[in-house]
């Protein structure tokens, strides 16, 4: 299997449930990302991992907890979510994280198919 | 100015038409830019990268104007399969993050 895969593809959960989203990349990349895409809104970056170390956390509520056990796998643990957390959650990976030197450029990111989450 | 701002759309064009989208960005230090395509209820997929003044790939041409800080995407001879949302993407912050525009929706009509 190639590219970036995500499971499950669809998830419905109650506000008191605990669930986890899984992402796996088969591209040999060193950086992995979680994004949230709500209806009619741009993609919002949630977390970034580079070489299994969290390097960015964009003011995401603590009810979202990421985990990166190795450079190929990324999880997003969910607990006590709110209905407004319903969205498409996208995982992405890139060769490296960030720009090169002073060039202010960044690597292409490749996305998984996403998990469509509904919180009841 | 917003970090990344796109034409609001939607654009509805007939097959065979030429259509262009614009995107403006605020960070003058940005060097690389991307156009992604996102089909309904699917993930974004890279369409083109733009590192210099422009890039051409078949019917698609991306142009970069650094002085005015905008990027454009031109689609010639539109196909029905070009119907999608086109996302303008710019590195921001310390160049370590990508900021996505809100997207421009294109519908190509038969």
How is this structure best described in words?
- The complex is a heterodimer of chains A (120) and B (110).
- Chain A is mainly β and 120 residues long.
- Chain A has strands spanning 4-7, 10-13, 18-25, 31-37, 44-50, 53-57, 64-70, 73-79, 87-94, 110-111, 115-119.
- In chain A, a hairpin with a 6-residue loop joins strand 4 (31-37) and strand 5 (44-50).
- Chain A is globular, with a radius of gyration of 14 Å.
- Chain A starts with a strand and ends with a strand.
- Chain B is mainly β and 110 residues long.
- Helix content of chain B is 0%, strand content 56%.
- Chain B has no helices and eleven strands.
- Chain B has strands at residues 4-6, 11-14, 19-25, 33-38, 44-50, 54-57, 60-65, 70-75, 84-92, 97-100, 104-109.
- In chain B, strands 2, 4, 5, 9, 10 and 11 form a six-stranded mixed sheet that branches. Chain B has a five-stranded antiparallel sheet with strand order 1-3-8-7-6, with no helix packed on it.
- Chain A binds chain B through residues 40-43, 45, 48, 55-56, 88, 90, 97-99, 103-106, 108-114, 116, and chain B through 4, 27, 29-32, 34, 41-46, 49, 51, 87, 91, 94-103.
What labels would you give this structure?
heterodimer; A: 120 residues; mainly beta; 7-stranded mixed β-sheet; 4-stranded antiparallel β-sheet; 0% helix; globular; B: 110 residues; 6-stranded mixed β-sheet; 5-stranded antiparallel β-sheet; 56% strand
């Amino acid at each position: 299997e190639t590219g970036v895969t995500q499971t499950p593809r669809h998830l419905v959960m109650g506000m008191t449930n605990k669930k986890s989203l899984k992402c796996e990349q088969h591209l040999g990349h060193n950086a992995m990302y979680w994004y949230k895409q709500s209806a009619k809104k741009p993609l919002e970056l949630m977390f970034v991992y580079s070489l299994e170390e969290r390097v960015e956390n964009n003011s995401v509520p603590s009810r979202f907890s990421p985990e990166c056990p190795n450079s190929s796998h990324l999880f997003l643990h969910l607990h006590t979510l709110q209905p407004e957390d319903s969205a498409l959650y996208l995982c992405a990976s890139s060769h490296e994280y960030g720009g090169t030197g002073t060039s202010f450029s960044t690597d292409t990111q490749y996305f998984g198919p996403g998990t469509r989450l509904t919180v009841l | 100015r917003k970090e990344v701002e796109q034409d609001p759309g939607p654009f509805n064009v007939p097959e065979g038409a030429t259509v262009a989208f614009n995107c403006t960005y605020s960070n003058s230090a940005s060097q690389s830019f991307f156009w992604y395509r996102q089909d309904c209820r699917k993930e974004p997929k890279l369409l083109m990268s733009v590192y210099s003044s422009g890039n051409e790939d078949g019917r698609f041409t991306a142009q970069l104007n650094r002085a005015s800080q905008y990027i454009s995407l031109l689609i010639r001879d539109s196909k029905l399969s070009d119907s999608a949302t086109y996302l303008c993407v710019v590195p921001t912050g310390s160049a370590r993050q990508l900021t996505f525009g809100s997207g421009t929706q294109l519908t190509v009509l038969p």
